[in-house]
Protein 1
Amino acid sequence: MAHSRLLTVGSRRSLLVAVALAAPLLSVPPARAEAAAYLDSRVPVAGRVKDLLGRMTLEEKAGQMAQAERGAVDGDQGQITALGLGSVLSGGGSTPAANTPEGWADMVDGYQARALATRLRIPLLYGVDSVHGHNNLVGATVFPHNIALGATRDPRLVREAARITAMETRATGPQWTFAPCVCVTRDVRWGRTYESFGEDPRLVTAMGTGIEGFQGRNLADTRHVLATAKHYAGDGDTRFGSSTTGTYTIDQGVTVTDRRTFARIDLAPYVAAVREERVGSIMPSFSSVDWTEDGVGNPVKMSAHKELLTDVLKRRIGFPGFLVSDWEAIHQLPGDYAVQVRTAVNAGIDMFMEPYSAPQFVRTLVAEVRAGRIPTSRIDDAVGRILRAKFQLGLFERPYTDRSRAGSIGSAAHRAVARRAVAESQVLLKNDRRALPLKPSQRIYVAGANADDLGNQAGGWTVTWQGGSGATIPGTTILQGIRRNAADVTYSADASAPTAGHDAGVVVIGETPYAEGVGDVGNGHTLEPSAADRANIDRVCGAVRTCVVLDVAGRPQIVTGLLPKMDAFVMSWLPGSEGAGVADVLFGKRPFRGRLPVTWPRSEAQEPINVGDEHYDPLFPYGHGLTTRPRS
């Protein structure tokens, strides 16, 4: 194999072992393999799909529609071959034992060898949540979360961040990312607010350039990955208190709306994702839709919503790619497992993320088809869409990892782009008495745990699903960035160190990491700053002549009563691994240009509040952001 020249001695050995395990099956080629049109790259993709579908059994087709979690197959990789799995994924925090580029590539290539041991040698599609960089990999470039990128108003920057993310991801094996999220967040109490580019569908649509960054112009180029627009549709527009998932309050809840409003707000970014950006896959949401036209009280889960999945998305909008369910999403549908599978397949879902029940899914799907409850035509449509993506990715010709770009992972050039994204995302909300930019000659007092915590700075979906505080990734903290710009800096996390003699104070407040509904307000979370953060503001702003407050969080916090105590207030979002980018604007190396992608409420009770609402009276309106000039 051509790619083997790029492997180290250790990785060659790992791959050879994997291939050797599959050798008995690999030695038996498919019947008339030399004449198989699907193996001929000169044949158009449509012809290859048709040829391969005609050779497949029902069981082989069912296997292609199943996606298992890495943790479910790693101990018995023969399942990949036995079931003919179409895909394997790494859920948040599901990594190889050696969480290194080589460890990832060895793992994915080992699984791929098992897939190529099947009768028809259909390659595996490996999926991962590279949502703000290749964030499961320690050492990858970690970009700001989408909410911060929305604040930049820079579609080209979003495209470039996605391009780098794709390159770093593909160099370690995965060919598919479950990103970008093109949800429109309409209530910042939602724990996934930071996954959205903002509250205005026009802004979210503009930032869909990330899809091109991921996929490029040619998916067969091993610098690119298949993108996934998610979560179709309305997941950011659910009603607070409507969720029935565990203790969640709003995530996976119900979008109560009429069809016209739904199309204008929730559906619009997907139309552009399909028709302009040509996204390869779409992930339906956990949430439900309840149409007001027929009376409220009969919501339908998106996984079962044939009107929206098939009639609207596939037929009216013309989506030619495939739909992949979210993590065990069909388990939330009514009925037993057979009914759940039947309902979701007939509604239009093509691939099923069944992390720990892929064998059961395959058996059930085959039985439902044979019983006549799922049409064969629906199976052929689903599998054809999946195969089309695999052909477009060039996996039949180059199934193994191209490791030639692994050296660029976390490179200085990539981190420079992330640092620029951090700087451009900073939103200056208040700047009295020209408090900012700071001067390098000033004696600066820094307070707050978030000033020196890379894990808090990166937020959820970083190394693990929920993320974590502490030095979880390499990078620079905001404090380190400040120290690189000023010679006289005192740091006290709890503001207990003496403040006397300092010219300026910088208090860094904010949230600790969370992901999805775990972060919902009312599920152990609030929009109010912590008692420690409020105390730090009181101590520092009450004692130091010039006081600047930075908010490191995935959404606005309630600062209405605290704002008069500050000279300057900056929303820093979740900047990722390059905290030095925050310091770049604090000290005037770069100008403040960011603008709010969401409305900033006066109180938690004011949510939901969005631009265009009647009696709109926020603390800071959508689009607000003061500007500065770079210091000469």
Protein 2
Amino acid sequence: MERAPGSRGRVRTLIGGAVAVAAAGALSVTGLAGTAQAADINVAKNAGFESGLGSWTCTAGSGSTVGSPVHGGAAALKGTPAGQDNAKCSQVVAVQPNSTYTLSAWVQGGLTYLGAEGTGTTDVSTWTPDGSSWKQLTTSFRTGASTRSVTVYTHGWYGTAAYFADDISVFGPDGGGGSDPGPSIPGSPSGLSAGSVTSSSVTLNWAGVSGATGYNIYRNGTRIQSSTSPSATVTGLSASTSYSFQVTATNSAGEGPRSATVNATTSATGGGNGGGNNPAVPKHAVTGYWQNFNNGATVQKLRDVPSQYDIIAVSFADATATPGQIAFNLDPAVGYSSVAEFKSDIAAKKAAGKSVILSIGGETGTISINNAASATAFANSAYALMQEYGFNGVDIDLENGLNSTYMSSALHQLSAKAGSSMVLTMAPQTIDMQNTSGEYFKTALAVRDILTVVNMQYYNSGSMLGCDGKVYSQGSVDFLTALACIQLEGGLAPSQVGIGVPASTRGAGSGYVSPTIVNNALDCLTVGTNCGSFKPSKTYPGLRGAMTWSTNWDATAGNAWSNAVGPKVHSLP
């Protein structure tokens, strides 16, 4: 978000082009002693991607590992085709000459190939079209008279969605490389934190443990439940009661040591414990940023913000000398006679059913949360400001990078203080949400249990990849829908995804689109109509809505944006 009129954000353009396929080096295996046939094993290493991309080579930037979806264990391969790159990932396996091997893999997502090359006889491959559930691909090959290594691979197809692969098997005689050792007992989970807290439940989150297939949750020293993912909600608790929690990681080898203890106190019966009575955010909501400064846009008081806006993000909080700590300083330029008058406007908006939150960051924001101390300082100071001013929650608009581990910890600490009615929004740039391995995307996924909506900034961007692997330029329906699809298919709920655009041509350096294009994108994503060349494979009727920078620039343009987009959002299915 921009403070200065006419300032331009950093433009990032992805240029489509050929991406060289990384050639896997041949693995040389010396002859085996004796003449007996080796026992059949899976000669592929790291077949379930539990060790990241270890033993695998993927074309540049196309491969990553994810925690969801997975077929087995805690990880799977995600291959993302882009331009002329089909997201090929390969491994050289050691084999016996004149031997037969069965090659198989579990796949889902976009069109996916599985194959083997360098067999010394006939190279093989098999494929399946797009699929929303796991499907097993299987083929077989025979090695040549002098073949000691074979390259096995999986890849997607040009212009199609990302694919996922897991539990790859190359089953046959041991070629001398052996197989992966059996699992060892996993280590202790780190980063255990308490998320949203109600009068009868506490949500727990922690960092996933490599090699773990499940987790056990302990309350006050007693095991109470298990989970297959690094989060869980403990229910059936008593109001206004303090509890201690620990978790352990498990797999077929056994249960690892317990984590550090985290304490959480349930709220009193009847709701959250911070910020006063907070109105609920509607199913479909319009978010607008209110400028606590004068940069040439219409100067407003909060009472002047049109009723079409459901969430008003006050921009921005200020950094202090203490890392992670924030403050808020009302700018005299916006015309309030006193802080009390400003607080009165917040209370009036909340009484009208609106949420007023405090935005942290902006184009020049310098708040850094990169360790445990700064995370706690952020949570404590943000909660104090919520208490002082009556803010419903916070917005994260850090455009100069963030640390997902400590930012998610800070937000969970804040939620534990503020209660389940806290509103949490985020406004990442397009580059931040291109894939789930980015720190912003990782943060959004880590706080899904308390996240209201991510309103990505579809402007000041340049061209970006859509979820189909094609490059789209800003300013079109396709740019809005194909990039939203990445978030919708990458783990966020439709209710946690919104479209962020400038309110006028003066609101951003580039990327302004007319309200008609915004409304067409909303139709395309929710009901499948008014799409451009890109049409999602399914609709998302629960999409949260839209956001604009800013209510002030909207007012400068006669509120044309909110008058057009507001009714459309509120009429979504």
Protein 3
Amino acid sequence: MSVPSATPYEPKTRLGRVTNFVDSRVSGSAMVKEFGRKVFPDHWSFMFGEVALYCFVILLLSGTFLTFFFDPSMAETHYHGSYVPLQGVEMSVAYESSLNISFDIRGGLFMRQVHHWSALLFVAAVSVHMLRVFFTGAFRKPRELNWVVGGVLLILSLAAGFTGYSLPDDLLSGNGLRIIDGVIKSVPVVGTYISFFLFGGEFPGTDIIGRLYMLHILLVPALILLMIAIHLFMVVIHKHTQFRGPGRTNMNVVGYPVGPVYAAKAGGFFFIVFGIIAIIAGLFTINPIWNYGPYDPSPVSAGTQPDWYIGWVDGALRLMPGWIGNIPMEWNIPFPWGTNTLSFNVLFPALVPAGIVFTLLFTWPWIEAWLTKDKRVHNLLDRPRNAPFRTGVGVAGIIFYCTMWAAASSDLIATHFHVSLNDVTYWLRFLVIFGPLIGFAVARRIALALQRKDREIVLHGVESGRIVRLPHGEYIEVHEPVDEFKRYKLVDFDSPEAIPAQPDARGKVSGKEKLRGRLSRFFFEDRVAPVTPRELEDAHHHESPAEVEAAEEDQNSITNR
């Protein structure tokens, strides 16, 4: 005997029937139900990742428009477009098509500037998002690999920006490629061959624009999309981090669900970002390639500045001296096939600063876990002041980066402020070496001072401005206790202690463990411990509330008379 099947559900509206048709074939409702219930915490600092994502979407949209009209050819032609000052000038087809986009395609200049401004904002948003993750400790277990994905995404964003910046083949971008060519040729033995292969002959060659174009529109965006997908997948798997507060633990997430709250907020925020970029692109000129002219290897214009995200490499090259004491930075090394020149004054600043920054960036989660011997899962974030050693390291890195960034404008600093270019270079060399050390020490001391201030607020409250006289004649200022919500945030944090070198299973202390012990003592010897319940209770009983209230009543009665 067969059991009659249930009557299938039939929606009454056309939209319902279409939705039911799709859902019955792809099971979309299950995915919407699963992801729509995901809870995300609400904090303003989390928006930087969203800004980066929205800027990338805008880059894809504006870049698609530009792709229809850009011709990545280095073939020679003569310009006969609308921009009169360049008519008849010999140039590449790539530069001609860039001018045509700017002056002859309706909305072309606006879309070029939308693309360029959104690229700058994309790299900035990724950078600030990485800084937020670093300073709050969101990279710790189990999110170390997601931190590495973020570092790869940052490198890819730099690559996307530089490859796109070089495509117009104007004088400014050509000078940037000239610097890259010099760095490649400084690589011993194989540098010249790599340059010939990349540029398609002696610089500037005939192939570099087409190859950068393929990288810019295909490979790099595809890798960025892959990294974004992996990043978001890991966010869903690991759940979102959250700041400490009442009811927030390592086992829960306090916030709002994706649907409908965050879906609506994200949609509105996307159009806000799009509108701001459109306003900036419509009002402020960026990269006026018609002022620079086509690229010619013979002239180098004064005052040229690369985009900010790549300027630190240019600044490192400017800071590197040709001699250190009596030691030259160019060595001629004899080989069986001839003499090769090893140009440390180019190779060192081009590779070493970037190697230091990105090596520390990728390995820091494991360095910190090794120093603190902390293998726990961390879903709660730190306030930067509550991790003084990490905050100091982050500030040192920012100073190191910004000093090299400023060095890329050393000539403009000298001309605008009417100072010697040599003096500017000497000061920047001093800052790039000692600035990070000074910044680390100052930031660490400030963080410890803020912790001590928080401890004082928890134990004694905040100043009320009311002065009372106690019965025995003492004058005191009445402090008002902080509310429980704020007090919870001030006392709920981890304060790692210095852990001396520990022997292994055989009772031997290795050299690596001794180094860890010395670093641990250096980073964590100065610390401010969180306020314990016993300390809070003793502080509240230190001043008699009854005496203070009686004194205030006496003052009020005298005033009323």
Protein 4
Amino acid sequence: MAKQNVAEQFVDILAKAGVQRLYGVVGDSLNPVVDAIRRNSAIEWVQVRHEETAAFAAGAEAQVTGKLAACAGSCGPGNLHLINGLYDAHRSMAPVLALASHIPSSEIGLGYFQETHPDQLFRECSHYSEMISNPKQMPRLLQTAIQHAVGQGGVSVVTLPGDIADAPAPEQAPEHALVTSRPSVRPGDTEIDKLARMIDEAERVTLFCGSGTAGAHAEVMEFAERVKSPVGHALRGKEWIQYDNPYDVGMSGLLGYGACYEATHECDLLILLGTDFPYNAFLPDDVKIVQVDVRPERLGRRSKLDLAVWGDVRETLRCLTPRVKAKTDRKFLDKMLKKHADALEGVVKAYTRKVEKHTPIHPEYVASVLDELADDDAVFTVDTGMNNVWAARYLTPNGRRRVIGSFSHGSMANALPQAIGAQFVDRGRQVVAMSGDGGFSMLMGDFLTLVQYDLPVKVVLFNNSSLGMVELEMMVAGLPSYGTTNHNPDFAAIARAAGAFGVRVEKPRQLDSALKEAFKHKGPALVDVVTDPNALSIPPKIKAEMVTGFALSASKMVLDGGVGRMVQMARSNLRNVPRP
């Protein structure tokens, strides 16, 4: 048997860790690794057109599967392109291993062609970033990187000079069993008992849930029933907690709706469950607050806490619920449920008035029809900007659908590359990219990746020929919009020229059939929908301090749009309110 080189050993270890594909762009210093993949049937090389796409795709794959995913970039400019997608994966707690190929080891520090220092550059967006400068560091260094990514939830970066990759691997190098899943974290009895006492003493309890409630839906519902608590959520908590939820009061934040804001401010005990909600202007400062999080460094960094609980949500509630006295008074819960239904009834009227005849097409109408037609287990990837609003208000979660976006990092152009990663996981599952024209055109080259691999991603393009969220930011600052208008081509024609299905929709009556035709198509498809650039959004509560760093406007051109099927959910939940 021929002796392995470091690149072959590297690829073998990735495969043993469960990595099924490596996203990237080939090139010089990366060639030994790519060649090793060519000869290894356990792992696939996915050729994208831009390394930023590679990182976003790996991050989305990790979020869909919960397992380690990987990407790679060649030396210098190649691996530098990874950084934006890696920031997003890291902030989303997606376990991703990034390979940053490097210049020859003998030339490092001498200003060589394409020289950078990736082991330093990626430290801020990773748990672990180190360079293999000697073959004897393998396989221990790679195994350590994998365990950082999986164990801490986020990115690890391994820098590998091309000559080291091509060097013989050390003989009889020690390999150990890899950690490929994370354990449950249970709080101590002292914290559980303190929290139980606080809940028993409180009259009005509200739960505010984030992505840390994934896998804990049943436990949250059982606890909410026991303490008669309204349940609100942040954007990243929507897919995990809103469905089958008779205690739902909507979402808080700048994309919010319903009675969540009131429920978090009118309670006397607010419990933050698995959320690192960044907008502290939407959190109260005059009620008791408890935060439960599996990441201890996140406890208390958004608001002053009366109790910090280190543990994952499911295990915490399993321990907590039996120790809490069942409450019988539903007055606060019922009051919030009614406020929530009333709030949704109010805004839904703006959406229902002749919207199906409005030209240019209301984006709310597009999102509503899309929600109705998409599969019950569809994966939606959502571009940053106004598409976040439409996804938050119109996509209906059911426990099977997934909604992935750059919700913590806030990058443009994420939807298409994330759709690539999500679709590679399962070609038979419907994946829909809700793209804006600004985001789509930024990484449009990777639409060709869909065609090359015949990935059946459906791109629904909300084309308002503008950077809508940026226009809002300018309006808030009292500035005229400038540099926000896009002169767009016929994107559907570009899709057809690339060999995919493409259709352009300019009239509302065309939308339903266009989406159905695209969904029926077996390969990649793009639906270019010309939408109204004046259809913008405002949150349910506005304070001056909320304006900073985000888009708000109270001008007459703002449409406080509808809320899709959520109004039906609110009406249904009202049936739980006892009648006098």
